[in-house]
């Protein structure tokens, strides 16, 4: 059975996913997209073999699978409609899900499924496996070029000018829940990690502004009764410095798994 797909947002994540679906992914068909800049969206869709409809956010829920790849400010509009209709919901703004966990309970009522892609991280299979036992601690350190952190509410609140940073500098220390609130466009990695592991209150995070790097770097450390490990990844930014190129590929990989006859990984 072919599943229809709709994508909210045609930016650094949504557009590459839309293009891949248009080229063809077994069992999936792109039927609708939404975008803030509709004129730009029409131009981007003009070369598609089967251009999807350009619709309002709430109309995305007409599809079987709804991919959220939009600014976190409109997360709820997309999520609520999709979950109310019992759809498969694939969020990119995972940090926006943390204060809205009631949507998970709502999904139990409607038959919806929320599938969180790995995104710009690695090793979530191992984290999930460890969480079946006892986990002492999970920490994540994220280092980004300063321009990749611009616009974060936490920086405005604390009056931190990351453009003035002239060396590696810690600008946030706390748990994943607070990190997601203060950096909604930057730390979806921590949100995904917390959901795979021990929750946002116990998952601890450091955010660094580092003018000496040109990649988004994440290091995870896990200590549990079954394993102790450290994972590190350096992501090449997309045209949006807040988002690594691998993020869109992760969403696409998650979509392929919906129909794959063979799945590698937990």
What does this structure look like?
The protein has 266 residues and is an alpha/beta fold. It has two domains: 3-120 and 246-257, 3-Layer(aba) Sandwich (Rossmann fold); 124-241, Dihydrodipicolinate Reductase, domain 2, CATH 3.30.360.10. 30% of the residues lie in helices and 24% in strands. It contains nine helices and eleven strands. The chain has helices at 14-23, 38-45, 75-84, 102-110, 124-131, 153-158, 176-182, 188-196, 245-257, and strands at residues 3-8, 28-34, 53-54, 65-68, 88-91, 113-114, 135-144, 169-175, 204-209, 216-224, 228-235. The strands form two sheets. Strands 3-2-1-4-5-6 form a six-stranded parallel β-sheet, with helices on both faces. The protein has a five-stranded mixed β-sheet with strand order 8-9-7-10-11. Helix 1 (14-23) links the parallel strand 1 (3-8) and strand 2. The longest helix has 13 residues, at 245-257. It is globular, with a radius of gyration of 18 Å.
Q: Helicity, in percent? A: 25-40%
- Classified in CATH, the superfamily of the largest domain is NAD(P)-binding Rossmann-like Domain
Taken as a percent bin, the fraction of beta residues is 15-25%
Shape: globular
Report the biggest beta sheet as strand number plus sense, adding barrel if it closes: 6 strands, parallel
Structural class given helices, strands, pairing? Answer: alpha/beta
Total helix count? Answer: 9
What's the number of domains?
2
Overall pLDDT confidence: 94
């Amino acid at each position: 059975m072919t599943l229809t797909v709709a994508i909210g947002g045609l930016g650094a994540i949504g557009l590459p996913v839309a293009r891949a679906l248009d080229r063809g992914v077994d069992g999936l068909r792109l039927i609708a997209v939404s975008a803030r800049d509709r004129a730009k969206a029409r131009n981007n869709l003009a070369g598609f073999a089967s251009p999807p409809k350009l619709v309002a956010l709430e109309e995305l829920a007409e599809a079987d699978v709804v991919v959220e790849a939009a600014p976190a400010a409109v997360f709820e509009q997309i999520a609520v409609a999709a979950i109310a209709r019992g759809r498969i919901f694939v969020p990119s703004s995972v940090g926006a899900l943390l204060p809205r966990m009631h949507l998970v309970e709502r999904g139990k009522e409607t038959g919806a499924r929320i599938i969180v892609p790995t995104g710009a991280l690695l090793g979530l299979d191992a984290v999930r496996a460890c969480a079946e036992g006892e986990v002492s601690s999970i920490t994540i350190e994220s280092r980004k070029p300063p321009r990749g952190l611009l616009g974060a509410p936490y920086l405005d609140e604390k009056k931190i000018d990351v453009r003035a940073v002239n060396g590696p500098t810690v600008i946030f220390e706390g748990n994943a829940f607070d990190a997601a609130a203060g950096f909604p466009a930057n730390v979806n990695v921590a949100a995904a990690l917390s959901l795979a592991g021990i929750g946002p209150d116990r998952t601890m995070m450091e955010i660094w502004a580092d003018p000496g790097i040109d990649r988004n770097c994440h290091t995870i450390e896990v200590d549990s009764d079954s394993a102790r490990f450290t994972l590190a990844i350096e992501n090449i930014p997309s045209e949006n410095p807040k988002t690594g190129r691998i993020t869109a590929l992760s969403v696409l990989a998650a979509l392929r798994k919906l129909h794959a006859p063979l799945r590698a990984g937990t």
